[in-house]
Design brief:
binds nicotinamide-adenine-dinucleotide; six-stranded parallel beta sheet; alpha/beta; single chain; 2 domains; 13 helices; disordered N terminus; Dihydrodipicolinate Reductase, domain 2; Rossmann fold; nine-stranded mixed beta sheet
Length: 456
């Protein structure tokens, strides 16, 4: 990653230091003798979160990306009493200011510090953990730097924009001994857990086939953004150059910026990559493929006419062959594949989606009331995705969706996309994580960065 001098630790200097109970932080510390008076928040690591001392203090959290999901995640963290959001960063001042306001209103103070450049936020030694919800083309740069700066990370799905970048994140998290939670929050929802556990316990017999149904098109952006499709100068509140960052520079068009960047392969991966971190993630969980993957991938997509504002496939179908003879279809816009995840076995099936839980045998529905001998395999259980992350930061035990899991859950999507783009079937070596005998397709495992950005 490009090196800039990191500003000296920009400690917070709160204008208002008052808590809801009327006690200032300074007087609170003085009264409780909780710590020597420090000019800023006491980072959890200083209090022993990495080691033996009881983690009795709040985890200090920085927010990177104040858009749609960044705001949602921040609100979830604000509901958790064992963390304190102390900083937020966005290259769009309006979004940044809005979120800082939300945080300060919640804590009834002015302590959340605003940043334009995430490297400055990451340079703060008093921040324990960060939440990263940036467009996909930024995931790897921000996450690798965060791991290097010894932050624990709640990072959004898909893990990164390319398989090569995902490998870099996995490596950085491992080498720096960081806790990672992926935003694949479906694992923390009861019906998804139940569905995967039924399948893992073999109630549907031997798994033969898995169907994963994803949305098609562009979430209505064709209509909602139709008056914002022409290039114009970026607005003053937005640093468009930094927003584009390592991606190829293309003209600023309002309708493909916030939220709708994902329909352009320069920044995202269309519906396939937007959703495989959810429903393929669950498919893998049920099949016990968290460390495994497909060996053959063949995909077809229907693309918009060239030269348009967006270029992602609107309709797609990926056929994959997995170990144990399991076949998987991931499809968007194919009516024969229902939304969500469906495992089909020799003795039955399970189908789960956000508003659906269906099984071939109704006796499986009250799953926890079934005899213990049918439920021997117990999957990791979390009832709150953000709370699970914070608990892992304290315990140093893995979260429910570590980086390696997210890496494997999104490899099928990445390979499907590559197969669509080169127009042929691919062979994948799970162990070496390489595409076999196809130099052109292999080139798409990584991407070139705009100067001067580099992934270190
Ligand atoms: N887990 C989920 O259910 C879920 C749902 C939606 C989105 N997501 C993921 O969250 C991520 C963000 O998606 P979104 O819908 O919130 O997008 P968004 O466009 O609404 O928000 C992204 C924000 O990042 C900011 N940004 C861009 N470059 C930046 C930089 N260099 N430094 C600081 N800020 C920068 C943008 O200005 C914007 O405010 C994506 O990876 C997406 O896949 C996850």
């Amino acid at each position: 990653m490009k090196k800039i001098p990191i500003a000296p630790s920009p400690h917070t200097s709160p204008k208002s230091n008052h808590r809801r109970d009327g006690m200032s932080r300074r007087s609170f510390i003085a009264k409780t003798g909780a710590a020597l008076v420090l000019p800023t928040f006491i980072p959890g690591h200083a209090l022993g979160l990495d080691g033996a001392v009881a983690p009795s203090k709040r985890i200090t959290l920085g927010i990177i990306g104040c858009g749609n999901m960044g705001t949602g995640n921040t609100k979830s963290f604000l509901n958790e009493s064992d963390c304190q959001v102390v900083a937020a960063c966005d290259v769009d001042k309006n979004r940044l200011n809005n979120l800082v306001k939300v945080v300060n209103e919640q804590y009834d103070n002015q302590d959340c510090k605003a940043y334009h450049d995430f490297r400055e936020l990451l340079g703060r030694k008093d921040i324990d953990a960060v939440m990263i919800a940036l467009p996909d083309h930024w995931h790897a740069m921000a996450s690798v730097e965060a791991a290097r700066q010894k932050k624990d990370i709640y990072g959004e799905k898909p893990l990164a924009h390319t398989i090569g970048e995902q490998q870099a994140i996995v490596r950085a998290v491992r080498e720096n001994d960081r806790i990672w939670q992926t935003g694949s929050w479906q694992r923390s929802v009861r019906n998804f857990h139940k569905a995967a556990e039924i399948v893992r316990n073999g109630l549907i017999g031997t798994i033969k086939r898995v169907e994963v149904g994803l949305p098609r098109d562009y979430n209505g952006a064709e209509t909602s953004e139709k008056d914002r499709m022409l290039p114009v100068p970026p607005p003053p509140e937005l640093d468009y150059d930094l927003w584009v960052g390592p991606a190829k520079m293309i003209p600023y068009i309002p309708g493909r910026l916030h939220r709708h960047w994902r329909w352009n392969y320069n920044f995202g991966g269309g519906q396939l990559m937007d959703w495989c971190g959810h429903h393929v993630d669950i498919a893998h969980w049920g099949c016990d493929f968290d460390s495994s993957g497909p060996s053959e991938i063949e995909a077809h997509g229907e693309f918009p006419p060239p030269g348009g504002v967006w270029d992602a496939a609107k309709v797609f179908r990926v056929e994959l062959k997995y170990p144990r003879g399991i076949e998987m279809t991931i499809a968007g816009g194919h009516p024969d594949i229902d939304g969500g995840t469906k495992w089909i076995g020799t003795d039955g099936w399970v189908h789960v989606d956000r508003a659906k839980f269906d099984v071939s045998n109704p006796a499986w529905k009250p799953w926890k009331q079934m005899p213990e001998e049918l439920r021997k395999i117990k999957l990791y259980e979390s009832t709150g995705h953000h709370a699970n992350f914070l608990a892992s930061v304290k315990s140093r035990k893995p979260t429910i969706t570590p980086a390696e899991t997210a890496h494997h859950s999104t490899i099928p999507g990445h390979l499907g996309l590559i197969s669509m783009l080169v127009g042929r079937k691919l062979s994948w070596d799970v162990k070496t994580e390489t595409i076999l005998n196809d130099p052109e397709a292999s080139k798409l495992l990584t991407r070139d960065y705009r100067q001067p950005w580099k992934l270190s």
